[in-house]
Amino acid sequence: MNKSTRTYLLHGGLFLITLVTTTMAGAEWMFGRLFIPIDGMVTLGWDEFVAGFNFSVPFLAILTVHEFGHYFTARANHVRVTLPYYIPLWIGIGQSIGTLGAFIRIQDFINSRRKYFDIGIAGPLAGFALALVVLWYGFTHLPPPEFIFTIHPEYKKWGLDYGKHAYQHLPEGAAMGLGDNILFNFFKNHVADPARLPHAYEMIHYPYLLAGYLALFFTSLNLIPIGQLDGGHIMYALIGYKRFRLVSPVLFTLFAFYAGLGLFKPSDFAVQTDEAFFSALGKFGLYMGVLYLAFSRISENRMTSLIVTLSVVAAQLVLSWARPDIEGYQGFLAFAFVLGRFLGIYHPETELEEPLDSKRQVLGWIALIVFVLCFSPRPFMFS
């Protein structure tokens, strides 16, 4: 077996495994049960697995279109690139979407802003276009509202008013809902039949809505104009190396500030016992350590990274003291850590710093508008 055949088998095998894991994860979201028995719970079987294709097929289709948008544009620009590597991940206890995504490896040095722009923008815009189709189909083909009783038969006693009763006595975090962004809100209010629209905490059981929403969520993360994310490539190409080197760390600092806002408040330390005080102080110290690691590559000078970290934490505490009702979204902290520590917040300089033509400039700002339409300040809600 030659190297080329082994490579194709690797890519194809990873795709098939990811198709299986996303199908299993989709079935678990759809039916609210697992394939692995836990505490005597009724497990899912073959019929539910097959139904899970209603999630995995549209979701992987969007992911695949995204990656091949990069792939074909790179080839058109004579940049050597691999086929997509899919990353399967199914943990078997829920709260998984069956994958960590996919990526392609660029095997050549990209020497111009224009090439970075073309390759960076093609993926998210292609995936976004298909996500719109999936969302349109999902919202125009909603089942009757009584469908939710097949998932939660215990809701029948409340009828279609279950939303006023079902979530009052659940443990904290037991119910999860999809947050809002401008585009998802438009589909809910102007495309869907209001009589068939499920409660926010039940949309996770509707596979096309879940697949489309997750596509918007990951598109928004990809289009954040920081570092070497797709949005970073686009912004770098739009404004050039020197300006981007100023803009990117500012945007990253604001993102990290919002992510951790409200996680700790001054009132957390006004406790009655020494044990509680030192426990809060220990958690606060751990948070500062993680934040410092996230900012460790913002400057080659460690003292600068430390000063930025302390400034962000101080500003968070001051705002939380003045407005304790304002909170960020702590779920973004992990992404901020990965972005700052591993992916980096700066962009490599290119040999050719030629400005983009007017058509590409317009397309670049459209991509940033897409980011705004897809971004949700609180992408997931918990009861």
UniProtKB/TrEMBL annotation:
Molecular-function GO term, any one: peptidase activity
GO terms classed as biological process: proteolysis
Membrane-spanning ranges: 85-104, 116-139, 206-225, 246-264, 276-295, 304-322, 328-346, 362-380
CDD domains: S2P-M50_like_2 (cd06160)
Keyword terms: Hydrolase, Membrane, Protease, Transit peptide, Transmembrane, Transmembrane helix
Membrane-related topology note: Multi-pass membrane protein
Origin superkingdom: Bacteria
Cofactor(s) listed in the protein's UniProt record: Zn(2+)
Any one Gene Ontology cellular component term annotated for this protein: membrane
Subcellular location(s) per record: Membrane
Stored InterPro entries: EGY1-like, Peptidase_M50
Residues in Peptidase M50 domain copies: 55-243
Primary location class: membrane
Pfam short name (any one): Peptidase_M50
Recorded family membership: Belongs to the peptidase M50B family.
The name this protein goes by in its record: Site-2 protease family protein
Provenance organism: Spirosoma pollinicola
